[in-house]
Write a structure and sequence with these properties.
The complex is a heterodimer of chains A (221) and B (244). Chain A is mainly alpha-helical and 221 residues long. Chain A is built from 8 helices and no strands. The termini of chain A are far apart. Chain B has 244 residues and is of the alpha/beta class. Chain B is built from 9 helices and 10 strands. In chain B, the strands form 2 sheets. A 6-stranded mixed beta sheet of chain B has the order 6-7-8-3-9-10, sandwiched between helices. A 4-stranded antiparallel beta sheet of chain B has the order 2-1-4-5, with helices on one face. Classes of the chains: A mainly alpha (221), B alpha/beta (244). At the A-B interface, helix 5 and helix 6 of A face helix 2, helix 3 and helix 5 of B. The complex binds adenosine-5'-triphosphate (ATP) and magnesium ion. Magnesium ion binds next to helix 1 of chain B.
């Protein structure tokens, strides 16, 4: 048995890089896929909208933990060995794409139809209407909830510990097992999550209360 | 030669037929007022003229384009047909100047500096030369509406369509917007104005069209139409509009 000392704390702190890596993977991967999800959800084709809606329902309806297992074990059926980072990254990306996609879809829908029409009446093609008129307004509406969701992602990366990926939760678990000091280990882990999440939460709140000024129009749904 | 030629168009929303065979033509430089009760199809007609609504039957030719719902052809048509709505619909995240510059830069491929000069010229036209950098929410309704007019003018349209552009404004602010439209009329712009301002229609429009239940019920030179309405429906409509 080992003492709970500086080395143990450092071990957990070093694992922070993997928590942050996973968060970045999920946020950027999920962000790009989420943009696609949101845009397809406002597509003119009913079938595309339905198909994407089905995707959102399935992903949102599956516990992330189960998604994590599926991403880890499914490739092995085809003889592919995925490393834990990759599997966790995919699971978190899928999950984030569905949630961010839904957030952004509702932001896009919150922009009045008259904005589309008056931009189209100026002979702007759809892609430019979206880029120069709709998206900038939708981004302002969606920003607080997007940053808020980033906090969720940080915490959700802890589930990667279940497939053996050593981020801070798994590091805490290892330290706890080695030292029989679970309280110290997990308080240390909790503190680290708090240090990342708290500023993000405050930032999200600040974005939310920021003077409504130019961001007139319906509030986010 | 007529700038707008509308032939027997029909438009349905589901089972509701809103335009029941409308034909009209507008000559270059002509100003036409469109009046009629709420729900008579005035806005729908205007929106059909720049392809915001698809017609079910009939044909439209406007500013040298045949109405087509092919995306590229429709954009070409819209470059030449400006429309201004009751609700201004300025882009709230852009300044007045940026609102006006957007389409010239993105559609006509003007350089930023060319577009800036053009935007300034259009703002001057509507008497807002000093509000280039104001955001829409810093402007009064009347000023926003004039920016919206300037935004359409910056595309140098052949035809301008106005849909009740003063209905959302207080009476004091109505005048400044009407003055901007009157200036345009004086410069020979071809225009269709949907309006509830009967006195303005009479003063500015060469011709007035009275719509009722999706058809043109009566039309004629504004002076004679307002002075001697021929149908009892128009008489009672005018009485109600002018009486209030
Ligand atoms: N997108 C739509 N879907 C269904 N019905 C519509 C739509 N747009 C208009 N209508 C209906 O068409 C009819 C004519 O509407 P329109 O807006 O053209 O009238 P209007 O003459 O402009 O009236 P107002 O003076 O109130 O603006 C109304 O009964 C309206 O409810
Ligand atoms: Mg109307």
């Amino acid at each position: 048995m080992r003492e709970f000392g500086n080395a143990e704390v450092l071990f957990i702190v070093f694992a922070l890089q993997w928590t942050l890596t996973l968060t970045a993977l999920a946020f950027f991967g999920g962000g790009i896929a989420g943009i696609a999800v949101a845009l397809l959800r406002i597509s003119r084709s009913r079938y595309i909208r339905l198909a994407v809606s089905g995707y959102i329902q399935v992903v949102q309806g599956t516990p992330l933990l189960v998604l994590m297992f599926l991403c880890y074990y499914a490739p092995s059926l085809f003889g592919i060995e995925l490393n834990a980072l990759f599997a966790a990254g995919i699971a978190l990306t899928l999950n984030a794409s569905a949630f961010l996609g839904a957030i952004w879809e509702s932001a896009l829908r919150a922009i009045p139809k008259a904005q589309w029409e008056s931009a189209e009446a100026l002979a702007l093609p759809q892609s430019k209407v979206l880029r120069f008129v709709i998206a900038p307004q939708a981004v302002r509406i969606a920003l607080p909830s997007t940053v808020g969701y980033l906090v969720q992602i940080v915490k959700e990366t802890s589930l990667a510990s279940i497939i053996g990926f050593v981020e801070i939760t798994r590091a805490g678990q290892l330290v706890s097992n080695a030292t029989f000091e679970p309280m110290k280990a997990y308080v240390c882990v909790a503190l680290l999550y708090f240090l990342i999440c708290f500023p993000l939460s405050r930032f999200s709140q600040w974005l939310e209360t920021r003077s409504p000024g130019r961001t007139k129009g319906p509030s986010r749904g | 030669m007529s700038v707008i030629q509308v032939e027997n168009i029909r438009k349905r929303f589901g089972s509701l037929e809103v335009l029941k065979g409308v034909s009209m033509s507008v000559e270059a430089g002509e100003v036409v007022a469109l009046i009629g009760r709420s729900g008579s199809g005035k806005s729908t007609l205007l929106r059909c003229l720049n392809g915001l609504e698809m017609i079910d039957e009939g044909a439209i030719a406007i500013a040298g384009h045949r109405m087509s719902y092919n995306a590229a052809e429709l954009r070409a048509l819209r470059r030449d047909v400006g429309i201004v709505f009751q609700g201004y619909n300025l882009f709230p995240h852009l300044t007045a100047g940026e609102n006006i510059m957007l389409a010239p830069v993105q559609v006509k491929r003007l350089s930023k500096s060319e577009a800036r000069i053009e935007a300034q010229r259009c703002l001057d036209l509507v008497g807002l030369g000093d509000r280039f950098d104001s955001y829409p929410d810093m402007l009064s309704g009347g000023q926003q509406q004039r920016v919206a007019i300037a935004r359409s003018l910056a595309m140098q349209p052949v035809v301008m369509l106005f849909d009740e552009v003063t209905s959302a404004l207080d009476p004091e602010l109505t005048e400044e917007v009407l003055a901007a439209i009157e200036d345009l009329a004086a410069q020979g712009m071809t225009m269709i104005l949907v309006t509830h301002e009967m006195r303005f229609a009479r003063r500015v429009a060469d011709r007035t069209i009275y719509m009722r239940d999706g058809i043109i019920h009566e039309q004629g030179p504004s002076d004679s139409l307002f002075a001697e309405p021929q149908t009892s429906e128009l008489r009672s409509f005018l009485k109600a509009e002018l009486g209030q």
